[in-house]
Every structure is written in C-alpha cells, then in structure tokens.
Design a protein that fits this description.
By secondary structure, this protein is an alpha+beta fold. The protein has helices at about 10-15, 60-65, 110-125, 140-150, and strands at about 1-5, 20-35, 35-50, 70-75, 80-90, 95-100, 130-135, 150-155, 165-175. The protein has one domain (about 1-15, about 50-175): Aminopeptidase (3-Layer(aba) Sandwich). A hairpin with a 2-residue loop joins strand 4 and strand 5 (about 80-90).
C-alpha cells in the first residue's frame, strides 16, 4: 500500500538503509578540441561489488520532511518499507524527486517503480509536465530503474554532491 507520510513515519524512514551496492558505474569521458566538446558516459563493470553511501544526510529528514511538496511511503503490514519525496520545481511545471529509498530486503521487487508511478499520478493531478530524477553516476540500480520507467538522460553535474560525486539527471515527460 502507498499513502501520504505522517510525522509518525519519519523515524521508520530514517532507519531504512539508504545506501546501495553496485557492480557497475557510468564513467564519464570528456574530449575537448578547438571547435568541439564531447562528453560521453559508458557503463563500466567494476572488479567487485562496491557499497555506496547515500549522498545526502538522510538524518535531516526529521527536520526537512515538511519542506517537501509530497512524501509518499510504501508499507507492508503497517511498516514503512520505502518512500519517495518530491519538491515542485525548479523549472516551471515540474517536480524533482529528492529521495527514492526502498528497504534493503524489499529491493528489486517493484516497490521503487510503484512509488514512482504513484508520484507520477500526483504530478499529473497537479498539472505538472515533467519529473526530474537525480542520482550518483555510481547508482547503477537507480540508472536501470530510470531506464525501465522510460526516463530520458538529460544531463549531469560534476562535483554536485557534498562528496564531489557526479550527478546524473533523468527526466520523465508527461504525455
């Protein structure tokens, strides 16, 4: 079941494992010539799985959740097992996914997709035209989810996160 979050849910959400493991990354290559600048990303398999920490301080969720335009949780047997958070903007008629987290034992079971689709309905109800999603270039599970949900890669920002990781940006255009 997916529903709006309440203040009682926040301690549960903060206990979720916000990190992830990956065995692939998107590696950026920059080629600059006098009249051309080319940037490409390619999928690279790592020699062994890598554990990646969440790029933000999720413990601030307790103070910041009311600043979100929407916060929806997935629950099973009355216990939160995942959440998605949105803010409206920054571009006109758009929403930005600030967080999409699923409990480690519940991952790869479609819960992230369900949360995204629930948020998609919320965005449509508000007349928004697009949804942006950001993630680390190391977040191969997130990249795969974005592709499955038909989001388009629309850009990147180097040194975006506090740990200087690259952010990848994907967008879903409403039709």
């Amino acid at each position: 079941m997916i529903r709006n979050a309440t203040s009682n849910d926040i301690p549960w959400l903060m206990k979720l494992d916000h990190g992830y493991s990956t065995d692939h990354v998107w590696q950026m290559a920059l080629r600059q010539e006098a009249d051309e600048l080319a940037i490409s990303f390619r999928e690279v398999r790592l020699p062994r799985p890598m554990r990646v920490s969440y790029p933000r301080d999720y413990m601030k969720l307790d103070d910041e959740w009311t600043l979100r335009s929407a916060l929806f949780i997935a629950e099973r047997d009355g216990v939160p097992i995942g959440y998605i958070a949105f803010i409206e903007g920054p571009s006109p008629n758009s929403a930005w996914v600030t967080d999409l987290v699923v409990s480690l034992p519940e991952r790869r079971q479609g819960i992230g997709s369900e949360l995204f689709r629930y948020g998609l309905d919320w965005c449509r109800g508000r007349g928004l035209a697009r949804i942006y999603v950001e993630m680390q270039s190391k977040n191969f599970p997130g990249i795969c989810l974005s592709k499955r949900l038909a989001l388009d890669f629309v850009g990147y920002s180097d040194n975006y996160y506090p740990n200087q990781d690259i952010a990848l940006f994907f967008c879903f255009e409403m039709s």
